[in-house]
Amino acid sequence: MRKRFESTHPSFSSSRRKLLKASSVLAAVPFILPRSLYATGLQSEVNVQKFYSGDWIAAFKQAFSAADIVSVPADLVCDNINTAIFMPEGKTLHVAGGLKGNGKGRFVLQDGCQVLGEKGGRFNNITLDVRGSDCTIKGIEMSGFVPVTQIYIGGKEKRTMRNLVIDQIKVHDANYAILRQGFHNRMENVKITNGHFSHLQGDAIEWNVAINDHNLLISDHVIENIDCTNGKINWGIGIGLAGSTYDNEYPEDQAVKNFVVANITGSNCRQLIHVENGKHFVIRNIKARNINHTFSQKAGIDNATIAIYGCDNFVIDNVDMKQSAGFLIGYGVIKGKYLSIPQNFKLNDIELDNTNMQYKSRGIQISSGNATSFVAITNVKMKRATLEVHNKPQHLFLRNVDVMQYADAGPALKLNFDLRKDVRGRFMAKNDTLLSLANVRAVNEKGDSSVDIDRVDHQHVNTNRLNFVLPTTVK
């Protein structure tokens, strides 16, 4: 499970792949309507109130049988939604008013279904359960602490679902906002965009055990005030994605892959972005403020703006952090066993300014390695923070790096390549190793050189414009 950082080499571990019990209940609901009984859309749009006679659930079912579009007008609140309402294929729920439930109610979206909101269109303690292709959820507000999640994407039917759009939603005062359990089926071409997530106990977006999914875009979101205070372990992340069991060979069928997380503004949480056992992904254009350990204190998760565990072939680009914990890029660990190490990645255009931060906090901490691998760290500027690199990838490049750390907190740059007596040393590259450093400056608050480099035994060493001297290369 995710643990707080407590040591120089933390025991990173997998946690996001633990399925939530409540989602299993959602997945167990059967599809009860055969295709032959789906509504034919005799009318184009109806007001659900037309069918109301004391039971809103019955009213919605009748309305969906009568028209392709069912509307909830602005002056109407439909309450006591306390069981599943299956939307027949191709139907649209148009919400300008309100819908309320007790946490057990949900609308199940099948192929071609849409839930569209106008200003004021809102759901409280009702889950939207996506079970089909070509579905859209747009323009709605959701809240309520009773259900585990506001939007659930999963089910146990082994099928492929395509073309999901979730756009312009606002979720607040809730547990999870969006939860995907992906072990049983496949999602293709998913776009989750332009959301606002605030005051949540769980995650804003959790994409869990999503080993079959392809082409996922999560972009243009504001995430703020994510604070798990209910004692739940592993809750309280902005955006989390996870594959299945760690494997240092990084097989495609075990990883969450082919996704982009972009244009995220986050504040006031313990961890903003989290990826476990992922590959072929990009994280870019992130702005973070006040990401620190005072949030979700009992959730058992590391404090970091971006946390990466056991991943391959990824890019993190253009990240601006202030008064925040930085990056944690480390091993894939299960029950204390180190199973994989990050490899083949690039960090570029990273800024971290903790000059005015009141807490001691992580800067950028990286563990990387493997026999054929590279790590490139370029255009990094950090104030009152440390850049740490542990273990040894085959090729390591540092370009245009400027770090400052206060002397009483330790060195500004730490390069820990010597793991000969450490069990994690098995991940070290040993052949044709390259260390290339250019325009690297590491200083304390007085401008004096501030580095800690234990051993350099790379076969090839290239340096240019350093404000420190490397240890004598060991051949």
TrEMBL record:
Alphabetized InterPro entries for the sequence: Colanic_acid_synth_WcaM, Pectin_lyase_fold/virulence
NCBIfam families from the UniProt entry: PRK10123.1, WcaM
Protein name per Swiss-Prot or TrEMBL: Colanic acid biosynthesis protein WcaM
Organism: Buttiauxella brennerae ATCC 51605
